[in-house]
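=== RUN LOG ===
request id: a7f3
mode: sequence -> structure
chains: 1
length: 199
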Amino acid sequence: MEHYQKAKEAACRVLLNSGVAVFPFDIVCLAVSNDIKIFKNTNMNELRDGETAVIIYDGKEWYVIYDDTIPSREHKRLALAHGLGHKALRHDLLIGFTEPTPKSFLRLTVKQIHARLSIPQEEKEAEAFARHLLAPLFLLHELNVKIPADIARVCQVPIETAERQAEILEYYRAGNVPVCELETQLHTQFKGFIEKYCS
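=== RESULT ===
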């Protein structure tokens, strides 16, 4: 649960600092405003079969190369949010652009994201960050959005991500997930959106 809380707080900070006040928001604009360069794989030809994104840190700059041929806009949003998560969480990636080492390129597949396979702690944190950035619990609670299909529609996330957030939302509503001060601040930031959605 510690990795989840750390990731949730980092996602809240990004949302607060960006001034985002509506959902769904433009994840590309958010990533670019956080100094991440984004490239489509059709222009780079970097991804291996089954990969949705590669996150690269070259010692100075962050890059995300994503599979722009995936028909699902939701999976593209998740891949970009995941990449932003590595940067926001200040993951210590090994440097290597032309001569990659196992950690210099963090490779991400749809199977890994949704099955939560035996993946490093950093990947779990980036996954939790992406879920909370795109579908924050406080907002789902305030909008009274409970079922995965509605979460997926409102937040434009893959159904698997929505299912996971729906599970955690039950704990949140029962008071078993700590609320951080940043969520209280976000509530103020999203007040107009929440009122409009609920009216």
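=== NOTES ===
Strands lie at 36-40, 51-57, 62-66, 105-109.
The radius of gyration is 16 Å.
=== END ===
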